[in-house]
């Protein structure tokens, strides 16, 4: 096997390992958001959210929606997030607006959203 292919395979394994960390994994993209699945045991663990954002976001752009179930993002056929998908989101982070928690999940958060 050539050195090139060994490098490509190694980089693929490295990328794959960073996309699935303890407590979270990337489901894919919807609209401008990267969709991140949070394991049920870690829904209340703030460090899991911040770990995902540190791993996935670069210094200039980041839009992430966090969900607890894969099915929460499979209800719409359009690329844009539906009202139901936004209701099911645990947290939404955007470069322009910062982060907002779902009020039904975190009613005491000072920066929560309701739909």
Q: Could you explain the architecture of this structure?
A:
The protein has 115 residues and is of the alpha/beta class. Helix content is 29%, strand content 27%. The chain contains three helices and seven strands; from the N terminus they run H-E-E-E-H-E-H-E-E-E. The chain has helices spanning 3-18, 46-56, 83-88, and strands at 20-21, 24-30, 33-38, 63-67, 91-94, 98-102, 112-113. A seven-stranded mixed beta sheet has the order 1-2-3-4-5-6-7. The chain is globular. The protein starts with a helix and ends with a strand. Mean pLDDT is 77; it is low at 4-19.
- N to C succession of SSEs: HEEEHEHEEE
Number of strands: 7
* Arithmetic mean of pLDDT: 77
Helix content: 25-40%
Write out the strand line-up for the largest beta sheet, numbering strands in chain order.
Answer: 1-2-3-4-5-6-7
Spatial shape:
globular
- Describe the main β-sheet briefly: 7 strands, mixed
Rg over C-alpha atoms, rounded to the nearest angstrom: 16 Å
Please give the alpha-carbon distance between the first and last residues.
54 Å
Counting DSSP H or I runs of 4 or more residues, the number of helices is 3
Strand % is 25-35%
Unreliable runs: 4-19
Structural class: alpha/beta
In short:
With 115 residues, the chain is of the alpha/beta class.
Key structural traits:
seven-stranded mixed sheet, alpha/beta, 7 strands, single chain, 115 residues
Strand and helix map with partners:
Blueprint: H1 3-18, E1 20-21, E2 24-30, E3 33-38, H2 46-56, E4 63-67, H3 83-88, E5 91-94, E6 98-102, E7 112-113
Parallel strand pairs: 3-4, 6-7
Antiparallel strand pairs: 1-2, 2-3, 4-5, 5-6
